[in-house]
């Protein structure tokens, strides 16, 4: 696997026992907005604090797809892996 492109906001994390590339693309943002039913992005910090396991999986699937990975991998990730991956992806965009 090629190293992540930080200029694009890519990050590589371990999910389901293998390195996986995540990227917060515009498409991923749209999928996350829909999954969380956000009226606008200012609601995101509060929603992240109260995510259900299903919502966390949906966000991870969007980030995986943005990174060119199969979104189905999200279903095989543990909750700690998914939460850590989400934090890494958001930090890469900061």
From TrEMBL:
The record's listing under InterPro entries reads:
Phage_TAC_11 (IPR021791)
Name of the featured protein: Gene transfer agent family protein
Query: What organism does the record attribute this protein to?
Result: Caulobacter vibrioides (strain NA1000 / CB15N)
């Amino acid at each position: 696997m090629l190293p992540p492109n930080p200029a694009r906001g890519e990050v590589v994390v371990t999910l389901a026992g293998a390195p996986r590339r995540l990227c917060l693309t515009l498409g991923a943002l749209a999928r996350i907005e829909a999954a969380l039913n956000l009226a606008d992005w200012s609601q995101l910090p509060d929603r992240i604090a109260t995510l259900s396991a299903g919502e966390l999986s949906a966000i991870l699937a969007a980030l995986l797809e943005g990174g060119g990975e199969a979104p189905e991998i999200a279903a095989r990730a543990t909750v700690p892996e998914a939460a850590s991956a989400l934090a890494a992806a958001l930090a890469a965009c900061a």
